Amino acid sequence: MSLFKTKEWWRTKCGSNETFDRSSLLVAPLFGDDRKDCIVIGSHQGYLRIYYLSSQWQDETKSSTGYKSIDLMTETKLGDCIVDLKAGKLVSGSQDPHLAVLTSNKLIVYTVTLTKGSTEQGDQCNLEIAYEHRLPRFPASLVVGPFGGVRGRDFLCVQCLDGTLFFYEQEAYAFSQLLRNRLLPEPIVYISRNDVFVTSNCSWILECYRYQNIAEFGRNQKQGETKNEAAKSLEPEWSYNIGEAVVDIGAVTLSSFEIGIVVLGEKNLYCFKDTGASLKYTKRLDYKALCFHAYVIEPDGKLMVFVIADTSTLMIYEGTTLKWSAQLPFVPVAVTRAHFQYLDGLIVILSEEGQLEACYLGSEPSLFIAPAVHRRGFDYVAAEEELLEVRRKLKEMKLSGDQLAVTPVTDMELLVNVNISPDLEPCPFVDKESKEDQEIRQLSMCRATIELSSYTTLYGVQVCIDVSKPFVSTITYRVIQNLCDKQVVQTLIYPSGNLPVMSSEVKITATYENDRGNLRIMQKTTELPLKLMLRACPPENTSTFTVIIKCNESLVGFNQLFPEFSGDHLRRQNWNTLGLQHIQTGQVVTIVSGSTSNRYRVQSNDGLSMSLVVQQLVNRLKDKSTGRLAASISQHHVQLVHVQMELHFLCRQEVDRINTELALLMTQLRNIEKRMLRAARERNSRSLTATGLSFLLSSTYDAISGLLDDLAAAQT
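RE: above sequence
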């Protein structure tokens, strides 16, 4: 609870026994910018009200004049439930703002005219229907904007309850389109600078669709294509996995070349760049957010965000920093910022019952004083002794290596058992490249079984299986909506490609939500069978890279360290040497044990191929021996690392250069497309070939294709 409260500037009650939601509040200059903003309220019972605030400050009473009867300019009943309200240049041939009202079965555009009053009754406004569209389905929300980059007019987009989008080019119906992975209506916003729609789907993934792509597939569908074919082909420009339900989405202009996309989730506040799925920042919320409003303070260009908590608290953020919080008089369902004739920057809030208030931030603290806590005597000597005892126990636990009992509750909620079968199976996904390796490559796949069990019901269990390259898992992601007993997930792991194996670890990550609403994460790590990566072979005498591992105790034999290779190959070799060959690359790694010097020497002609063998040797020595280990590497390894770092740095520089050139060429391509579209619309007598735009388009496209090939090569 905040110490400060907002100060009332203007307040009224919109009707009685009426309900409102987030879309019932609209603040827009319907009578022109010189007349400042007015408030439009639409209720679920079909009442439309327009307020124009006349409240001003009084020095005598040190307060505002508040609500007057002349502030209500019009009140009318439309007869249907008002779903959403928007304003824009919605009538062809007119640059004046018009009001769009979305009802349960119609989309109505009104012309709002101001009639100045000559008496104390004040000004009035009249509503005249400019045009209307009857909707084939029940609507959910309305979006207005200059779709397609048109100038001097706005188009309309109606989202229905099944997620279908209906587009209207003012008085004419254009097309309809159903986006992919859409079951219910989701928050959606239009960004005019990039001509894109940003929305979320039922998988909690934020997606961006370009209007030109939506229009193309929508018109193809209208001309005869089936809806399933169009929906399968329509792909988003970019997507970002948020991982939680989206409450609302907003877009603000940060500068002349950047738009910020602000997304309010159930537990986080996100801010994205409009150029792609790049996250500017995220803020974790410790409360349940109801609604929000984002705006920019000029001329500094600071992004500020209002967030309303369910405790009737207004939170004001600048980035991830909480700048101010204030207590509201009621719990609002909608919030926005308005500029009225006598005061700019007022906060307008609307409750579900129809309480409408324009307020500002006050700096007078609340007069509430917390009662004194019951005093009781404390024995400071006993407390000091108890604190010293706790510190001593913590120190002992730290020295002994024991961990505090923090995670047993999490382990008890979800039990994850991972079983990697040591028996290899034939792999149908790997091609047989050579006859001599045909028998080995036939057994190049293992089966992994993951058992999930819980004594209580867990929600939204997500299991991710991560293996290192070149291994591939047939199942990498599995979602279990409700886990109340036992679930088994089976996957197949096999190699793909000729890359050297750097690690044999398999990481199983499970995330879930318990019955108290807390999010938990568990991770299990296991090892793949070594026979899946290596095979026994004759050792090699010459080598370029060498690693020496010393032990202060007697050495452990190879038949104990690597029992899976203690067959005929090991018996035919010397007892102090072991040759291991990578199945994928064919590189040989030799291990030589010196009984007199108590050391192992790992050598190979390929430095990358030694990593897996050295890792396995050290891990198995720690399990079989209690002695201390010391390792030393040759100078060739250091040179190899330096060379790889230099190559990586050069590749990063090349990627940055290509991305910069791609951004410039994409801007050039969009400008050429706009010029060609404008020439086609104006029906210019000159052909596109004569203007040279087709040549520019072709050369720009070829340059972009070449840069994309260079980018793919640099990233590999």
